[in-house]
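Quick one, T. Sequence first:
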Amino acid sequence: QVQLVESGGGLVQPGGSLRLSCAASGSIFSNAAMGWSRRAPGNERELVARITAGGTTTYADSVKGRFTFSRDNAKKTMYLQMNNLKPEDTAVYYCWAAGYGWGQGTQVTVSS
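Structure tokens:
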């Protein structure tokens, strides 16, 4: 059974950066669709970034140019580099992999 474990969340000032990591335990196919979603208080969960099984990466319009999704198949880890963070990026961030499930979430708070 695969488990996904996020890390790297925290408190950061507007304009700052964070890098989230999501490590998978167990076997996971390197060509699985995977990505990051987030849920802000009172909002629905929204897709932030994803890579398809074919290798195409897409981003939500709200994070384009600021967030970068990447993965290291050898380490079974995916990353979300978040730059120029804004207060509206405050949310719990979840990683996921199609067919394998979701991580437990990591809190990101952007505040001065």
